[in-house]
Write a structure and sequence with these properties.
Blueprint (H helix, E strand, L loop, with lengths): L5 E9 L5 H11 L3 E13 L5 E6 L2 H12 L6 E4 L5 H13 L5 E3 L14 H11 L5 E2 L3 H8 L7 H13 L4 E5 L8 E7 L4 E7 L9 H14 L4 H17 L21
Parallel strand pairs: 1-2, 1-4, 4-5, 5-6, 6-7
Antiparallel strand pairs: 2-3, 7-8, 8-9
The structure holds adenosine-5'-diphosphate and pyridoxal-5'-phosphate.
EC number: 2.7.1.35
Enzyme class: transferase
Keywords: ATP-binding, Kinase, Magnesium, Metal-binding, Nucleotide-binding, Transferase
């Protein structure tokens, strides 16, 4: 079929199914697109150790090989990156985007897993800032990641989020969405969108219980799906906000530690 709309994720595997490549491919399907993937890391969560996340990066050369396979069909309609796992893998992603003249690039600068409070790999965070932000059509940091990328540290208000978005735009990303999510105090889940000249504040009710494991990946994958389908950036972001809200509302409690989103929530109109 020649009218197939193609999407790609370069991300890690979350066997628990809510986040990572699993979230991305499910979301791409919901958007009626054909999903490709290059796996960067395998993440396990240990029920015998308080659900501690162990992250196992794949060899960078193997990520490059996967991307050679994907791009053998030419550039895709839109792509995203998620957890990248090492500086070398960030470089491989950068080269693939440049060499294949890939447009519609969504960078989700994954630095932490929810429930874990250490930056997974500080060098990778710097590499994402320096190598990938200049290639980003949209970058989607959460509150913590936006504080790191902007250098502003802890962000606690919409004004802080706007200042961070401005700084991240200066680093080269064309559009920035700073996600307040559950981390920003208040009754609303607030995200700030900045296109380089105007701010839009996206608001939804804060959903409780927050079955939001995978919400960030799902949001970025939904923006990717929207861009692939030809939506302008601001519409792709607004639709992604509705999509992820429905996914959180339809989420469920997997065990005592984690409640993932359900990526099909939007279709079920929940
Ligand atoms: N409890 C919640 N209720 C409603 N929306 C939420 C909730 N938690 C997160 N979101 C939304 O989900 C999206 C992902 O945000 P967030 O969970 O902060 O990202 P990340 O997974 O990268 O930490 C954002 O649009 C955010 O506002
Ligand atoms: C492979 C992978 N990518 C990304 C994330 C981040 O998930 P979230 O969308 O909840 O921020 C996780 C968290 O567990 C993960 O395992």
């Amino acid at each position: 079929m020649s009218n197939i709309v193609k999407t790609l994720t370069i991300a890690g595997s979350d066997s628990s199914g809510g986040a990572g490549i699993q979230a991305d491919l499910k979301t791409f399907e919901e958007y009626g697109t054909y999903g490709f993937s290059a796996l960067t890391t395998i993440v396990t969560m240990d029920p015998d150790n308080g659900w501690h996340h162990n992250v196992y990066p794949v060899e960078a050369a193997l990520v490059a090989e996967q991307l050679k396979t994907v791009f053998a069909g030419g550039p895709v309609d839109a792509m995203k990156t998620g957890m990248l796992g090492s500086v070398e893998i960030v470089r491989v992603a950068e080269q693939a985007i440049k060499n294949n003249h890939q447009s519609n690039v969504v960078i989700d600068p994954v630095m932490v897993c929810k429930g874990e409070d250490e930056v997974l790999n500080p060098e990778s965070a710097e590499a994402i800032r320096d190598l990938l932000l200049p290639l980003a059509t949209v970058v989607t940091p959460n509150l913590f990641e936006a504080g790191v990328l902007s250098g502003l540290g802890k962000l606690t208000s919409i004004e802080d989020m706007k200042n961070a978005a401005r700084k991240i735009h200066e680093l080269g990303a064309k559009n920035v969405v700073v996600k307040g999510g559950k981390a920003l105090d208040g009754e609303k889940a607030i995200d700030v969108f900045f296109d380089g000249s105007d701010f839009t504040v996206l608001e939804s009710d804060k959903i409780e219980p927050a079955h939001n494991h995978g919400a960030g990946c799902t949001f970025a994958a939904a923006i990717t799906g929207g861009l692939a389908n030809g939506l302008p950036v601001h519409e792709a972001v607004a639709k992604a906000k509705d999509f992820v809200s429905a996914a959180i509302r339809s989420g469920y409690q997997f065990n005592e530690y984690v409640g993932p989103v359900f990526h099909g929530g939007y279709r079920l109109n929940r």
